Amino acid sequence: MTAARLSVQDLSWSPGHGTATLLQPTGFELAAGRVLGIVGPNGAGKTTLLRLLYRYYRPTTGSVHIDGEDIWGLSARTTAQRVAAVLQEQPSDFALTVGEIVALGRTPHRRGFAGNAGARDTHIINEALDLLDLHGLAGRHLGTLSGGERQRVMVARALTQEPRLLILDEPTNHLDIRHQLEVLDLIRSLPLTIVTSLHDLNLAAGVCDAILLLQSGHPIGFGPPSEVLSETAVAQAFQVVARREQLSQSNGDHLTFHLPHKGPSS
Ligand code: ADP
Predict the structure, then answer these.
(1) Residue 172 Cβ < 6 Å to ligand 1
(2) Residue 140 CB-density burial (10 A; 0-12 exposed, 13-18 middle, 19+ buried)
(3) Residue 212, ligand 1, Cβ within 6 A
(4) 40 CA to middle of ligand 1, Å?
(5) Distance of CA 133 to CAs 150, 157, 185, 204, 212, Å?
(6) 78-136 pLDDT per residue, tens
(7) Is this model's pTM higher than 0.85 or not?
(8) Closest approach atom of ligand 1 to CA 49
C-alpha cells in the first residue's frame, strides 16, 4: 500500500447557478499517511466535501491534488486507482456474496471487461479478506450480514482498489462500541492517507492527526485535534456548552456537552 499527499486549494461547491454555496472555499494540506477527521453538525457540508475529494462532484472553485496531480486532470479510472470511498449508502445488491463484492474493488485495475481475476487480483482480494477477518464470511450473501460485518466488507472492497487515499463517510455509524473501536483501530493501522467524517468528537480526537471543523459550509478550524476542538470552537459550531477535561494522565482530554439553557447532567 502507498499513501498519497493530499492538497486541497480554495475548494468550494454549489449545486448550480444562483444556488447556495454548500461548501465555502476550503484549503488544507495533508501529508502522506495522515488521518484527517471532518467534523461538524448535521448539514455542515461534510458529505459535500468528501464527494469533492473522491471526484463525485466537480468543484465550483478550486482543486484537489493527489500526489501533485489534479484529480479532474485524470481519467475516472485512474482516479479510482488513487482514491476509494466507503460510503454510508451501501450496495443494494444483497444477492452478491462477500467474496464477489470484495472482488469488485479490482474493477479499476482490470483491462477491458475480462471477468476472471488474475493471480495478483486473487492475492490482493485474499489479503483484504484476511485484514478485515472476512474469510469465514466470503460465501455469505451481503443481505445476511450485520451492520458491522457489512461495514468491514465495504472497507475490504475499498482496500482491494489499492487506493492511496481512503475516504470514509461516518464509518462508525450504526456500530456498537466494540465495532466502532475496531473500525477506528483499523483506520489508524492502515498505511494510507485517510479522510473520514466522524460524529463523535472524542473518537475523532483519539484517531485523527488533524481535524477540519465545518459549520454551515464554512471551514472554521484546521489543525491538531487539541487545537481545533477547543471548548469555544465546539460551542460555536454545535450550539452547545462544551467542557474539556483531562480524565487521566495517559488519555487526552475528553469533551462533554450540554444544552445552553440546561446544566450539565450528573
Ligand atoms: P453533512 O454531511 O455535514 O450533514 P451535507 O454535505 O450532506 O452535510 O449537506 C450540507 C447541506 O447541503 C445540507 O443542508 C444539505 O441538505 C444540502 N445539500 C447537500 N447536497 C445537496 C444537493 N445536491 N443539492 C442541494 N442541497 C444539497
Answers:
(1) no
(2) middle
(3) no
(4) 12
(5) 12, 13, 14, 24, 31
(6) 999 999 999 987 766 778 899 999 999 998 888 765 556 688 899 999 999 998 889 89
(7) yes
(8) 6
